[in-house]
């Protein structure tokens, strides 16, 4: 059975959110409509670009095993020209969980254009928790008063991006969004960080959150009173409305920033007579260690099923021998007077011919394999249409090293990976002794904190 989602990109509309800014709407909505699907469904999504510039949508965490050329990333997928349309045909094969989609070109994400994407389990697959009374999506992240073309101009002018002007929850400012719950019932919240630059901390005043799922993995069900969520990450928690009937703050604040931005939404008990008052509860004050410890506590539930009936633990990922090690380090540098971000000193530039087409039709001169080093070079950054080759069925160890003083967030588009270790200091082969080869979560995006 297939679902047919027809999405139409509205024209740019002037909105007033935390200042004057242009917002990208989808079907007239910001955030865009949520895509709700069930494991293995085929989705047909037609995207009509009504903007006056090229547009491309990326399906964060949706694995496109068959159609990787349409994953919505520059280099594999052509942007949709102004006034044109493109139909994506995706199968959410062997996937469950919480994700979102976002525009991946030209800082468009800073102007909206994103929406939730959830994949429910097939009815025959046991889910390791009872069905919640409702399933709420929270898309939270930083917001800039400057529009996306001004942000691009800042980077092109050789400068760092400015600090964000605020945070939004589902496109609204402080207390602009209300989630209603009945006392005594349990709800699922799927929270994603849809921002451009800052990690966030998420908490619900007075309540504990039971973590149940991270980007398609069922986790050990630990309770948390606050969760760090980095750019591009998605978490599912269960919340039981078991406190006195009143309204409570849902709080999002920036993490690892010298100035802390905070915004709130409302958790409204349906029998509440009391609205929120006073300052919202503060976030964690300890920085790195708290966050690191929390990241390590997020584990796979080995006995729970994922998208398939067999338990997640039956994959035994830690028993597969790796065939190759790649070390990647980031740097922010100036190239031709512009601020550019590089991996192993290479800042990617798209080729005129999409790489997938060049590959398929064997067009020479578009890219060359191995045009990005396997290890950090420490050298100056340069522009390159960089492509790294990998062997079919290779099992690769990737070490991500953060050489900047801000948190980095890495998304491996179209693939999931196991985050087996996270620590400070310099990685060495001896670090392998500390790897979690048993119950690390399988996810699509990982943070790399700045740990000295
Ligand atoms: C979508 O684009 C195709 C060309 O790629 C065009 O033939 C078709 O008319 C467009 N559909 C709509 C509804 O604009
Ligand atoms: C962004 O704002 C600038 C003014 O600061 C304006 O010139 C430009 O047209 C705007 N761009 C878009 C895409 O709205
Ligand atoms: C793991 O999943 C099983 C379902 O297979 C569930 O009964 C159990 O409570 C879960 N364990 C934890 C620690 O979350
Ligand atoms: C991994 O390598 C070891 C030693 O090289 C070998 O004995 C073992 O069979 C390999 N395991 C797998 C799953 O290939």
TrEMBL record:
<dbReference type="Pfam" id="PF00394">
    <property type="entry name" value="Cu-oxidase"/>
</dbReference>
<comment type="similarity">
    <text>Belongs to the multicopper oxidase family.</text>
</comment>
<dbReference type="InterPro" id="IPR001117">
    <property type="entry name" value="Cu-oxidase_2nd"/>
</dbReference>
<keyword id="KW-0325">Glycoprotein</keyword>
<feature type="domain" description="Plastocyanin-like">
    <location>
        <begin position="135"/>
        <end position="272"/>
    </location>
</feature>
<dbReference type="Pfam" id="PF07731">
    <property type="entry name" value="Cu-oxidase_2"/>
</dbReference>
<keyword id="KW-0732">Signal</keyword>
<feature type="domain" description="Plastocyanin-like">
    <location>
        <begin position="353"/>
        <end position="448"/>
    </location>
</feature>
<dbReference type="Pfam" id="PF07732">
    <property type="entry name" value="Cu-oxidase_3"/>
</dbReference>
<feature type="signal peptide">
    <location>
        <begin position="1"/>
        <end position="28"/>
    </location>
</feature>
<feature type="domain" description="Plastocyanin-like">
    <location>
        <begin position="22"/>
        <end position="122"/>
    </location>
</feature>
<dbReference type="GO" id="GO:0005507">
    <property type="term" value="F:copper ion binding"/>
</dbReference>
<dbReference type="InterPro" id="IPR045087">
    <property type="entry name" value="Cu-oxidase_fam"/>
</dbReference>
<dbReference type="InterPro" id="IPR011706">
    <property type="entry name" value="Cu-oxidase_C"/>
</dbReference>
<dbReference type="InterPro" id="IPR011707">
    <property type="entry name" value="Cu-oxidase-like_N"/>
</dbReference>
<protein>
    <submittedName>
        <fullName>Multicopper oxidase, C-terminal</fullName>
    </submittedName>
</protein>
<dbReference type="GO" id="GO:0016491">
    <property type="term" value="F:oxidoreductase activity"/>
</dbReference>
<dbReference type="InterPro" id="IPR008972">
    <property type="entry name" value="Cupredoxin"/>
</dbReference>
